[in-house]
Amino acid sequence: MGINKDLLEILACPKCKGEIQLSDKGDGLVCPKCKLLYPIREDIPVMLIDEAVKLS
Q1: How far is residue 46's CA from residue 22's CA, in Å, rounded to a whole number?
Q2: Model confidence over 1-50: pLDDT tens digits?
Q3: Where are the chain's structural domains?
Q4: What is the pTM of this model?
């Protein structure tokens, strides 16, 4: 099913409040500024800083 495009436009990074984008694999939302990936589980984005994965 994937994430709704309208939802993606209104979501923001909980850490910096910046824009986020869908990852290349579609398995999470990426904040390029913070270099964090917020996972998507069962089509629901997990927008918790503690659950984010740090990108290299």
Answers
A1: 13
A2: 578 889 889 999 999 999 999 999 999 999 999 999 999 999 899 999 99
A3: 5-54
A4: 0.89
Q: What tokens were used for 37?
A: 């990936």
DSSP the chain: ----HHHHHH-B-TTT--B-EE-TTSSEEEETTTTEEEEEETTEE---GGG-EE--
Identify the pLDDT of residue 1: 58
CATH classification of 5-54, choosing from 3.40.1190.20, 2.20.25.10, 3.40.50.10470, 3.20.20.140?
A: 2.20.25.10
AA identity, residue 7: L
HSE-CB at 6 with a 13 A cutoff on CA atoms is 0
